[in-house]
Amino acid sequence: MQRRRALLILTFLAIMPFAWAENTHSNSSYVVYVGTYTGPESKGIYALRFDPASGKSTPLGLMAETTNPSFLAIDRNQRYLYAVNEVTDYKGEKSGGVRSFAIDRKTGKLTFLNEVSSRGADPCHITLDHTGKYVLVANYTGGSVATFPVLPDGRLGEAAAVVQHSGHGANAERQEGPHAHEIQLTPDNRFAIAADLGLDELVVYRFDSANGALAANDPPFAKVDPGAGPRHFLFHPNGKFVFALNEMGGSVTTFSFDARAGGLRKLQTVSSMPTDFKGKNESAEIVADASGKFLYASNRGPDDIAVFAIDSEKGTLRLVEHVSTKGKAPRNFAIDPTGKYLFAANQESNNIVVFRIDPKTGRLTDTGHVLNVPSPVSVVFLSTE
After folding, report:
1. Listing from the earlier edge strand, what are the strands of the sheet with 30-36?
2. Burial class of residue 370, CB neighbours in 10 A (0-12, 13-18, 19+)
3. What confidence tens digit (pLDDT) does each residue in 83-108 have?
4. Is 3 in a helix, a strand, or coil?
5. What is the pTM of this model?
6. In this structure, how many other beta carbons lie within 10 angstroms of the beta carbon of residue 160?
7. Cβ-based neighbour number of residue 320 at 10 Å
8. What does the DSSP 8-state code read for residue 344?
9. Phi and psi at residue 18, in whole multiples of 5°?
10. CA 204, CA 198: separation in Å to the nearest integer?
11. 49: CB partners within 8 A, 6+ apart
12. pLDDT at 21
C-alpha cells in the first residue's frame, strides 16, 4: 500500500509541471479583435487568438458582419465591444452608426446588441469614459463629438450630448471645416479632449459622468502649428503631459497638462518623419508603453513607426529609430497586454505585422509573424479566461 501511494505521488509530481505549464499557456493567450474597412475582401470585425509565449496566432475568422467598423473599444470589464460604422448615410440621416456587441469571454464570439446614430457623418474614433457609463465618439466629416449612455445590458442609448465644432484651418483642401478625429478622457475623468484635424486644435470639454454632458472648458482649446492637423493623442502615464500626433505635419507636439483647470501648454514639436523621406505622408497612430519611457508614432508614406524616448520629467522626446512596418499604410497599431509585442496594422497590405519591444531601449524587432486580415484599421485586445 505504501509503495503504491508513493508511486502515485511520484506520478503526480512528474505530470504536475506539464499540467501547470499547459494551464498557464492557456490562460496567457488572448483574443485580438481587428476593425476594418469593408469592401470586396472585408466583411466587418475579425479576430484571432495570440499566444505571447510562443508568438503563434490562430485565426478565428469573421466575428461580426458590419459596415466599416474602423475603430473599436472594449469596456473595462471586457464584457462588451463597441464599434463605429464609418459611413455618411445612416438610415437616411447624414450620419454614421455606433454598434454594441456582447463578448463571449471564452471564445471571443461577438453577439450584436443594438445600434444608434453617431449624430455625425463618418465616425472614426470611439472610447468609453472611466466609469464605463458612457461611450464617446468623434465624427470626422460631421466635425462633431457625441456621448452615448451605456445601458445595464451593454446596449447603447440615444445620444446624451452632441457638440458641433465650427471654423477652419490653414489648409483650404484638408481643413475647409472641422474634422473631429479622436476624443479621449483625462485620467481623472473630469475632462474630455477632442483632436480636431480641421481646426488645428485640441478642444477641451468639461465632462459630467453623471449625465454625459459636455461643456466648453476655460481655456477651451490648445493649438498646434497651422496646417499640422492633429489626429490622435495620448496622456503620459504620469498624467502631466499630452502627446499629439499631427497627421498633416508629420510631427508630434507635446503639451503640459494642468489637471486642475484642464489647460494645455505647448512644450515641443518634433518631426515623426525620417529625414531623407521626400514623398507624401499622413501620420496615423500614436501609442506609449505602460512604463511611460517610450512613444511610438506611425507614418503612412515611409510606412514606418518612429520610436521616441520620453523624458518623463520634462515631457520632451528624443528620436530612437525608425522601423519599417513591413507593409503599406500602417494606419493603426497597438501594444499587447503583456507589453512585449506591438501589432502594426498595414491597411493596404491586408496584414498585421508583429514586433517585439525591447523594454530597455524601446526598439522594435520584427518577429516574422504576419497576421493576414483584410484592410485592418483598428486593433484591440481581450484577455480570455
Report:
1. 56-65, 44-51, 30-36, 376-383
2. middle
3. 999 999 999 999 999 999 999 998 89
4. helix
5. 0.91
6. 18
7. 18
8. E
9. -70, -40
10. 15
11. 29, 30, 31, 32, 57, 58, 60, 108, 384
12. 31
